[in-house]
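Quick one: structure tokens for this chain, please?
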Amino acid sequence: MLDISIILKIMSVSASGAFAPGPLTASSTTLGAKGGWKAGLRLAFGHTIVEFPLVIIIAYGLGTIFQIPWIKFSLGLVGGLFLLFFGWLTVRDALHVKSTDFQAIKPKYNSAFFVGVVLTLFNPYFLAWWIGIGSTLMMEALTSISLFAVVVFYLAHVWLDYFWLILMSTIGSTSRINLKLYRFILAALSLMIFYFGIKMITSTVFGIYL
């Protein structure tokens, strides 16, 4: 079992990853405009489906597989392209939405769970954080590797993801108040998502960090 000082350290370090501006944060706000706080919950669950197995892999010393060049390249390229596609969907909504009565609108993309899975699985920055920071923290926190200890460690980390993504999607849902405000928020978020997509592709393919 982890003592309280270790748990507090896990939470404080984890916040550097959970609260940092990034694709999941931008996406949770966008999806929250349609799905409210539940979009953030589904997004966080999709994130967890990918993240927890990765934590198990790292705990048992298999994390070096993600350092293989072609794997890193593939993850970064696919993730960047998905972000550009998601940004385009967001722009399309900003241009064509005529109502903020989302109960009457059939969503064009309503799978926050799917977005959470993809933006986690194909995000090399997320993998780099776990391999470079998370793994070090885990080895420091766990005196012996056991499934129970890893689960406790992960719970001390992952609740921050749920808190943050639900909060961001809740904030996004406030855009329902006004159609012009909703369009403006979608347009601003689409630019952010495009930026993260271009950044991911240029750093992966050309080694250029924007």
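The radius of gyration is 18 Å.
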